[in-house]
Design goal:
Length: about 180
């Protein structure tokens, strides 16, 4: 779960299963002191999988999900030039970065740095859609060394330049993610 709509969908499932006391956060559900049965857990798993989510219950998967959440949080703060991503993750998760990186790469098939770039590009798209900042301001906010660097990375990831993306958005021809 990485957005408020996701949280809302999961909360609805919990309500349907009479588990409304659980706290829903981005990426996690905390049942607190509530004891849930194996049958309730299986019903919950089936219901969220039908919505496209997965239940992560083992330590390794939880750690990888924590890395994802921390990378997203790091990008959302939009001012990360003072702290390196590796230091931020090591401090936030109380793990050494080489171990986190090796685990993440082995399970996800991409490096943490590549995942970070993908998240920066998603943030760039978001800021382009808002149309409140120039590309130069976006590049500065997301700590790119130059507008050219942002544009190259954007084109490598999306196949479009930021300007082409913005024109596509303005034309109304965009597809929702579930139709791509």
């Amino acid at each position: 779960m990485v957005c408020d709509r996701c949280k809302f969908a999961v909360q609805n499932v919990l309500n349907e299963l009479n588990l409304s006391d659980a706290a829903v956060q981005l990426g996690e559900v905390d049942f607190g002191d509530t004891v849930i049965t194996a049958q309730q857990l299986e019903q919950f798993r089936n219901a969220i999988e039908a919505l496209g989510f997965e239940l992560i219950n083992d330590k390794k998967s939880r750690l990888i999900e924590s890395v994802r959440k921390q990378v997203i949080a790091f990008v959302q703060q939009e001012s990360f030039e003072k702290v390196k991503l590796s230091e931020y993750l090591a401090d936030s998760l109380q793990q050494d970065y080489p171990s986190l990186s090796k685990l993440f790469s082995s399970v996800e098939g991409v490096t943490i740095e590549h995942y970070f770039i993908l998240q920066k590009i998603e943030k760039t798209k978001e800021l382009l859609v808002y149309d409140e900042l120039t590309l130069t301001e976006i590049a500065y906010r997301l700590s790119y060394s130059s507008l050219a660097h942002l544009s190259r990375q954007f084109k490598t990831v999306t196949g479009l330049t930021p300007t082409q993306f913005k024109q596509l958005r303005d034309s109304g021809d965009r597809l929702s993610i579930d139709k791509v």
